[in-house]
């Protein structure tokens, strides 16, 4: 095993990729089909939240009960729909994604993992679609937890259980929402906020990340960590 410099946990949507709204459209359409309605969904925020939390709110919006069996059924239908929505929605990799992942993956010095609100299989579907899944082998996902902080605690506990030395090294969370900053703080991480999502730069600045960058081409944070 290579000598580790630390851990970098990446959010996906708005950070590494812009899926063109494919995930939200697929999920909302699945619920409209289930509840046989054309009603437009309003008032349910998605950025920085877990799919578990979003589906709970969609059940409530449509007057349904979010019991485990119903949740599993709707999740599976969403996962079946997602690939075709990715094909039909204009999306792509965000600036600097390929370069930073390649740089961090080189020689295996940094432990890369995911920290996302996506359902696990949805995360892998998106990463495979955009050709960057090979940079990751695991992560924290939004299947079990409503709160992103709990997702962060779960993956960090798992990673440090596998590699105890990681606790003594820097841990960095990279994301595009104030929720990414907050969940990073929940595990004592430093946070890189990247302004490629729906949040304006001033909103991210108010969350007090350690670094605030316009896109992933800006690698000052990594240079400082490796200095």
From TrEMBL:
A biological process from GO: DNA repair
Identify a single GO molecular function assigned to this protein: phosphoglycolate phosphatase activity
Q: Which reaction does it catalyse?
A: 2-phosphoglycolate + H2O = glycolate + phosphate
EC number(s)? Answer: 3.1.3.18
Extract the Pfam families matched here: HAD (PF12710)
- Source domain of life is Bacteria
Tell me which GO cellular component terms the UniProt record holds: cytosol
Functional pathway: Organic acid metabolism; glycolate biosynthesis; glycolate from 2-phosphoglycolate: step 1/1
- SUPFAM superfamilies membership: HAD-like
Enzyme class label: hydrolase
Q: Identify the InterPro entries for this entry.
A: HAD-like_hydrolase_sf (IPR050155), HAD-like_sf (IPR036412), HAD_sf (IPR023214), PGP-like_dom2 (IPR023198)
Q: Which family does it belong to?
A: Belongs to the HAD-like hydrolase superfamily. CbbY/CbbZ/Gph/YieH family.
Which named protein is this?
phosphoglycolate phosphatase
